Amino acid sequence: MYRSQKLALRYFTAAVTLFGVMIVFGLLSALYYLAPSTLFNVFNFNTAKIMHIDTLVIWLLMGFMGAVYWYLPKELGREVEGIWLGELMFWVFCVAVAIVAAVFIVVQYGPANDTTLWLINQGRKYVEAPRWAAIGIVAIMGVFAYNVAATCIKAGSRMTGVMWVLVLDMIPLLVVYLDAFPVDTNMSRDLYWWWWLVHMWVESTWEVLIGCIMALVLMDVMGTSRRIVEAWLYIEVMLVLGAGILGLGHHYFWIGTPQYWLGIGGFFSALEPLPLLGMVVHAIYDAGMHRMKTRNKPAFYWITAEAFGNFIGAGIWGFMMTLPQINLFSHGTQWTVSHGHFAFYGAYVCGVIAVLYVAKQQTSGVDMLAGRAWKWGFGLLNLGMVGMVMGLLLAGMAQAFFGRAIGGSTLMAFTTASENPWFQSGMWARMFFGAIFAAGYGVLVYDLLTAPRREPALQTQALPEPA
Ligand code: HEM
Ligand code: HEM
Ligand SMILES: [Fe+2]
Questions:
Q1: What percent of the chain has pLDDT over 90?
Q2: What is the residue range of 11's domain?
Q3: Of 153, 182, 211, which residue sits at a domain end?
């Protein structure tokens, strides 16, 4: 095994651990909706939610980095350049995350001054980490980008199409993260740039990154030909950029930007599901070409879940509220939260879990992953997520209808909508299915950690006892 792959296993371990932390704080955040005085004066909703969504971003990043460190040496047939720097940065990353989390939990907030920005919280949703840690993350991502780029350069003529896409994607991955640093005091301008972080980073740059990772997994698990995988990858990247760049406008409807964004954002973002549809067609096409044959069933199931989850969660759930006529009512309700959960889960969580199973099979050296635990994990996680998403959709539609359309968006209407039985049931459903999701996580971890069961061999069949 390459050193880079050992580093990948470390990244996977850290990612799965933070996935667990994220779920704990997700459940806690959900509890405030049912019992608003939870931990009153001890720990507030905002900090619980910060822990939830920041660990989300970090564990997915770690999962992607693990996947890249796993496949890079295999793809290019050589150890990763400067791997020692990457190994060092892994520990820096873990220590920084632990300190930031401890500060969030213990200190929670500070006065509105520079010290707070440097040491406690920069206040940017999804990337709240204080400035020192954000600088650290830039350094870590810089080393990661260097590892990838330098290895590609050394590989010379062995360079592949997937690697070209990957190495070019390192540029926006690094540059758009700079958005985590607030600079502008004008709220409209500030939001204008902040949306690049959600839309251009998480929805576009990450989408290209997971596209590369899925291309590598497909070749690995299904034996799909490189020509087919690369052709699809180019088409998907073209569509992501074609629709996604101006699609950014769907976040510019109500933040004080000029009115032309209503038309531009509405039109281009409506095209955004196309590349995701392309991925579904691609997965079905490959499965058909190979008559659904694979040696790694869990990975195959999770890749399929990724293709469909990405299309439905990001594509359909996003499309539902991307036209300004609808977004006027749905903006910032639990409807958005429903889409946020479904999209992140479908597009990224399922993809990272697929890679975890690839790593499990190769480190344990079995020909065929068998057993039942992975099916339980797969079923519970998917059931938990779909149940949560439906509960949130119900709650969000109640808010849009009673709070916005009928109530006219006043504070009183917001309160009335929050007491509406449909909204309340949605919040209970989210909690219930969240618990199922957490159980699925438990089974997933159990399955990843236990030694794989081998397919029973014929010789082991019990022979009749001699008389
Ligand atoms: C046990 C499972 C989970 C529970 C109970 C849970 C609960 C919550 C709660 C209560 C919020 C705050 C929503 C608000 O501000 O009103 C939230 C936000 C969020 N969660 Fe989760 N979550 C869970 C799992 C996940 C997973 C697996 C993902 C990603 C795949 C995720 C991604 C997010 C995102 C992106 C947000 C921000 C959404 C927004 O503000 O629009 N959560 N979650
Ligand atoms: C992997 C891809 C995607 C991910 C991870 C994702 C995630 C998210 C998240 C987390 C938010 C909430 C941001 C916040 O307020 O904190 C959001 C908002 C939004 N997304 Fe997506 N999304 C994806 C793709 C898409 C696509 C393809 C569309 C449209 C076709 C779309 C349409 C929207 C819209 C309209 C909003 C704004 C909702 C509002 O007004 O409150 N998204 N997305
Ligand atoms: Fe967007």
A1: 84
A2: 1-182
A3: 182
